[in-house]
């Protein structure tokens, strides 16, 4: 039995969110078409239209004020300095001061309004994507790696900051400033402007090409980073296995490989970025020289005043700066659009409850579970279950036994409605599980797995996980029944003790008791038990059995059984082999049949070796044998 039901068997992580849409991790992603992205961007804008329009107005004021300084320089030089109109000076200074102040205030207001909104949106999208991913079917998790999902939730949404945040407004602002500057420049000197402008245009084309090279590098960086982080999380989480197999070195090599790929990626983008800086410096030099040359000649010819020349150079910088900015913001915007597209791709995945079919609300269950000729396959053409047909009556226990890979966990996954059968039906209290609203069903389901899943929180939080609204009395009672109180009270901080990630600070038996307390608190109608294969000492074993006995009472229980005591107590045992039920009945009946069950039971002969034996059970059996 797998440690977690329905957990991925293969390393499916390298496969995509949607196989037909998204290529694997490091590969280049196709750019989403504009036709597709525009409605998505519009959907972001629509609810905050007022804010966006207001910001644009603010931005126009902001940019207009920014142009007062260069525009006033001509009057300062020509009128005040050359022609001694000193009465103009205070007016010029007052205008520049006022404009600068308004510019400062509007810049502040803009960044406050937009950056705040951008960050709020990121938070909102993260919540939305996480919640959505949480509601996706188990197959989705089988298909996608944890690291990739984490980056979907945390990184992909970051880009929207550039759309709603300052990015788009800056983009339009830059466009506006550059256009105004261009008009002023043409008015000052058409010849000079057309010449410099053509050089700048060539430069802009080069820049755009450079960004085109860099863009996929950035995109790849996200994918590589997700992969490396994913693997790192796995190897840190599995540190005991890593150390147990002395695999520190090979893990270090895997990580070093990932880091190297990241480095290569960063270096290649750095190179391109440096080339861009180099070429922009050179272009600025050429344009500067050209303007000096032409300006000098225009002045000598009497077509340009000194003030006009200074104004010209100032406006020129006002045109060049936004042009460079435009190209880089343009890249950010396409990045953001690609991220938004990926986010929407996840949000478009159908949740488990989606579709019109899952409508049936279940009331409190009696717990009658029937498999009616169920066949199932994970992958097309590779059937795993064939014609499974059985009834589990309310309050009874069904033990599943059989060799590894025979299909026991898959049967349990179908009971949990993690998957839906391709043929036949799984019927609970007369309702086909395929039609059931999952929340109304799963809330009545309890699972106790051999690998207990504990959060890095306190003991109390971990017990309350199954029913957060339970009263103190209720959870304490559950802990008492499951004998959690016995060991917790020995901890100095009692129930407030942090159990550590995956509960490593607790022993295996303690973890199991905690997980039983959790299930007792949940009070499920249907209980799934995956018995631990590992042996505990007989004292812990006895305590756990006691808890389980309480837990199973009155509930329909499915247990992937490894303990003889559970199997003997079961109301029915299903012997599963190669996806079919080979034998069924109670322990004595099956033994008497002398078939597969008998074989499994006696295969290892020596009572101590028996595969169904838990500590202490061997003695009982030997006594029976003697009798
Ligand atoms: N998510 C999955 N995708 C594809 N195949 C799967 C998946 N999970 C299980 N299988 C396959 O289905 C078959 C039955 O597996 P299952 O986990 O149900 O067996 P099991 O009886 O519980 O085995 P074990 O006792 O070893 O856990 C196996 O051949 C397994 O490889």
TrEMBL record:
**Domain ABC transporter, chain residue ranges per copy:** 369-603
* GO CC, alphabetical: plasma membrane
Instruction: Please give the CDD domains that the UniProt record associates with this protein.
Output: ABC_6TM_exporters (cd07346)
Q: Where is the ABC transmembrane type-1 domain?
A: 53-335
Q: Where in the cell is it found?
A: Cell membrane
Q: What is its main location?
A: membrane
Query: Entry's PANTHER family?
Result: ATP-BINDING CASSETTE SUB-FAMILY B MEMBER 10, MITOCHONDRIAL, ATP-DEPENDENT PERMEASE MDL1, MITOCHONDRIAL
Instruction: Tell me the protein's name.
Output: ABC transporter ATP-binding protein
């Amino acid at each position: 039995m797998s440690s977690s039901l329905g957990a991925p068997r293969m390393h499916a992580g390298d496969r995509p969110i949607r196989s037909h849409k998204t290529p694997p991790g490091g590969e280049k992603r196709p750019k989403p078409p504009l036709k597709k992205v525009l409605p998505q961007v519009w959907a972001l804008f629509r609810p905050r239209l007022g804010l966006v329009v207001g910001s644009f107005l603010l931005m126009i004021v902001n940019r207009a004020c920014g142009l007062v300084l260069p525009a006033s320089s001509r009057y300062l030089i020509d009128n005040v300095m050359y022609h001694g109109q000193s009465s103009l000076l205070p007016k010029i200074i007052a205008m520049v001061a006022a404009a600068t102040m308004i510019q400062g205030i509007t810049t502040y207001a803009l960044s406050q309004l937009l950056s705040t909104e951008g960050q709020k949106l990121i938070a909102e999208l993260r919540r939305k994507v996480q919640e959505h991913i949480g509601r996706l079917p188990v197959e989705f998790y089988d298909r996608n790696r944890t690291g990739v999902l984490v980056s979907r939730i945390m990184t992909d949404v970051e880009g929207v900051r550039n759309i709603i945040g300052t990015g788009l407004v800056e983009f339009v602002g830059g466009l506006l400033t550059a256009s105004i500057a261009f008009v002023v420049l043409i008015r000052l000197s058409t010849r000079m402007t057309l010449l410099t402008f053509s050089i700048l245009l060539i430069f802009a084309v080069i820049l755009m090409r450079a960004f085109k090279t860099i863009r996929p590098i950035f995109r790849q960086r996200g994918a590589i980073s997700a992969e490396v982080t994913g693997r790192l999380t796995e190897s840190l989480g599995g540190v005991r296995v890593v150390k147990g197999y002395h695999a520190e070195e090979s893990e270090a090599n895997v990580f070093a490989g990932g880091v190297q790929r990241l480095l290569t990626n960063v270096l290649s983008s750095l190179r391109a970025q440096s080339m861009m800086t180099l070429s922009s410096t050179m272009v600025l030099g050429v344009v500067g020289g050209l303007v000096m040359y032409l300006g000098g000649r225009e002045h000598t010819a009497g077509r340009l005043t000194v003030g006009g020349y200074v104004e010209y150079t100032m406006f020129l910088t006002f045109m060049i700066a936004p042009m460079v900015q435009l190209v880089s913001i343009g890249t950010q915007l396409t990045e953001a659009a690609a991220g938004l597209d990926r986010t929407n791709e996840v949000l478009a995945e159908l949740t488990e409850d989606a579709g019109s079919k899952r409508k049936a609300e279940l009331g409190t269950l009696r717990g009658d579970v029937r498999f009616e000729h169920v066949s199932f396959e994970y992958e097309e053409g590779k059937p795993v279950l064939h014609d499974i047909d059985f009834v589990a009556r309310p309050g009874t226990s069904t033990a599943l036994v059989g060799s590894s890979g025979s299909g026991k966990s898959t049967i349990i996954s179908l009971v949990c409605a993690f998957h839906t059968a391709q043929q036949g039906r799984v019927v609970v209290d007369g309702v086909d599980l395929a039609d059931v609203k999952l929340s109304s069903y799963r809330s009545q389901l309890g699972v106790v797995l051999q690998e207990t899943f504990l959060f890095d929180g306190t003991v109390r939080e971990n017990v309350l996980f199954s029913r957060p609204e339970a009263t103190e009395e209720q959870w304490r009672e559950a802990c008492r029944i499951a004998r959690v109180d016995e060991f917790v009270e020995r901890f100095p901080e009692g129930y407030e003790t942090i159990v550590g990630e995956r509960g490593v600070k607790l022993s295996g038996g303690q973890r199991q008791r905690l997980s039983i307390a959790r299930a007792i608190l949940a009070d499920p109608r249907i209980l799934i038990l995956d018995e631990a294969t590992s042996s505990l000492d007989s004292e812990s074993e006895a305590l756990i059995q006691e808890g389980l006995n309480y837990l199973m009472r009155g509930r329909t229980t499915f247990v992937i059984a490894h303990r003889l005591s559970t199997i003997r107590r079961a109301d029915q045992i299903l012997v599963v082999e190669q996806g079919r039920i080979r034998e069924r009945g109670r322990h004595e009946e099956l033994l008497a049949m002398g078939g597969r069950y008998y074989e499994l039971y006696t295969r290892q002969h020596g009572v101590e070796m028996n595969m169904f034996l838990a500590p202490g059970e061997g003695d009982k059996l030997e006594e029976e044998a003697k009798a």
